[in-house]
Amino acid sequence: MTAIIDGRSMRLRLSRIDAPEHRQAWGQRAEQSLRELVWRKPVHIEWREVDRNGRPIVTMTVDGLDVSEEQVRRGMAWVYRAYSKDPRLLGLEALARESRVGLWTDESPMPPWEWRRLQREGQQAP
After folding, report:
1. Is residue 73, in this structure, part of any structural domain at all?
2. One of 8, 11, 16, 21 is an active-site residue; which one?
3. Domain of residue 63, CATH code
4. Which helix (H) or strand (E) element contains residue 44?
5. Boundaries of each TNase-like domain copy (predicted)?
6. Which of 21, 27, 45, 102 has the greatest CB tally within 10 Å of its CB?
């Protein structure tokens, strides 16, 4: 996502989650969900590290609501297991999957890290 910080545009990565890519199934809906959560609202952002693409990896809250947790609860993102073993977040993902909300309405949703791997290898992702 992009945020305006101190008057300048900055690309950010939400911590602990991975959402569908824009061209991937559910990508545009995940983006819409994120916009609903944060668009033109004051957000609280904390970061301690930067990813390999130079983006701050952030924890973001809006009115006390953790944006990463809410995206997972809505079925708009996966827990990024390579970087998070947060039991609360894993529980929210399991509940979304069991309730078949968001991307979990698909029979076999493809995690974005797998979709990106197929793209890198030049394979057609479903």
Report:
1. yes
2. 21
3. 2.40.50.90
4. strand 44-50
5. 1-106
6. 102
Question: Is 13 a known active-site residue?
Answer: yes
Per residue in 3-17, pLDDT (tens digit) is 887 888 989 999 999
Catalytic residue among 29, 31, 55, 97: 55
Catalytic residue from among 13, 16, 73, 74: 13
Question: Would the CA dihedral through 70, 71, 77, 79 be positive or negative?
Answer: negative
- The two structure tokens encoding residue 96: 């979304």
- Digit-coded pLDDT (tens) for 18-77: 999 999 999 999 999 999 999 989 999 998 899 988 899 999 999 999 999 999 999 999
Q: By C-alpha distance, which of 5, 25, 3, 4 is closest to 13? A: 3
Domain that holds residue 72: 2-120
Count: domains in the chain: 1
Residues 6+ away with beta carbon under 8 Å from 104:
75, 96, 97
Residue 24 CB-density burial (10 A; 0-12 exposed, 13-18 middle, 19+ buried): buried
Please indicate whether residue 120 is annotated as part of the active site. Answer: no
